[in-house]
Specification:
This protein is of the alpha/beta class and 492 residues long. It is 40% helix and 12% strand. Strands 1-3-2-4-6-5-10-11-9-7-8 form an 11-stranded mixed sheet, with helices on both faces. The chain is globular, with a radius of gyration of 21 Å.
Amino acid sequence: MGLMDYTAVELGKKIKAGEVSVLEAANAAMDAIDALEDKFNCYVTVQERAAVQAKAEELQKKIDDGTLTGPLAGVPVAVKDNMCTKGTRTTCSSKILENFEPAYTAEAVLNLEKAGALIIGKTNMDEFAMGSTTETSHYGVTKNPWNAEHVPGGSSGGSAAAVAAGECSYALGSDTGGSIRQPASYCGIVGMKPTYGTVSRYGLIAYGSSLDQIGPMAKDVTDCATILETIASHDPKDSTSVKREDYDFTSALTDDVKGMRIGIPRDYMGEGLDEEVKAAVLDVAKKLEEKGAIVEEFDLSLVQYAIPAYYVIASAEASSNLARFDGVKYGYRTESYEGLHNMYKKTRSEGFGPEVKRRIMLGSFVLSSGYYDAYYLKALRTKALIKQAFDKAFAKYDVILGPAAPTTAPKLGESLSDPIKMYLGDIYTISVNLAGLPGLTVPCSVNEKGLPIGVQLLGDCFREKTLFAAASAIEHVRGEWTLPFARKETLS
């Protein structure tokens, strides 16, 4: 058993006990990257091995003298490339930020560093997090470690693939409309989008400010809860940050679901859902029922309005947020231009990819005079109604259970040719972002082609513990789960 076969918490325990050195863990991660990166392209930037080794020695001293005592001290982690990291370029997988080195580090990443995490690189993503397949990156396509002919999902596809391939022990992703949960499902790992405001957005390069949230991507539920404990904090630098009374998420890992009320929305189980995915969700429901949970179907309503509302709001916010990338202060600037206005136009048309341009134009349109009321304002009203529908559901249920995506991971190139189809792939995830709720994806089985299927658990605001308990129960009834890096033949 190699060091990257262990979960993050298991590896942390071995480092703490002196059975494994931080340097050995660092070298194991770097060796995996050297062996597999050409095949999967999980990273935009990988730290120099010598720098990682030096950092490993520094962390080892702090662990040995008792300065660092946390469960993740010395464990290799990867960070999605839309989180600022001082001294390391942060590109958002875009040409327009190809040489951008931030002057500060994102708060969530700082919290990891304070806990002694060993950051080994920045992971690939859909450009500015706009996409569901990690195919819109300026730095090439990321491939799914379960089958390299398939996508890993997106936009946090690089983080999901890196964990599944054993190129890091865990990773951070960001979730605007399912960008943690959907790739986690496609890559057979656990991913959580916490309640909006739980993790600081300071230093996260914004896509949709009212929707974005940073979250953990890991091999199992225990890792996920431990990472969230580490990165969650109240941050005065983020006006949307919430001061919570309780950040103890690991205490919920009991797998006790007796008496837990679980609702399955009929709206999620109808047309468009792959039969194998549907069967997997219903099988999980049956097993939870056998463990004492109360499971029933209900009508969530408004599901069909979530996609249009989301893409109007997200695109509107994106068009405003991305106005700052103009070639003046930082990032890419076109080589030849005539005057300031021409420089703006040429820089942005050369620096942004097609999907980003599409969403900027859509956002500018829905915010324009004459269309604001018809589209943007209507979308905001729909967002409020969706939150009300969830409030009504959570008055009756502790957890909502459903699919994370309509299908398993599609083949490379299938989604990009049909943007609408790609957008519809988010149908089960985006409502959570519109309502600010927590959501978690946990793998439950594989389809006949050997691709993983994940189920999604949704909870009311600040009820992450309930989700962790239910997810622990699913892990328990599912049994052992083997990721691709432990099946050496899939990576050869």
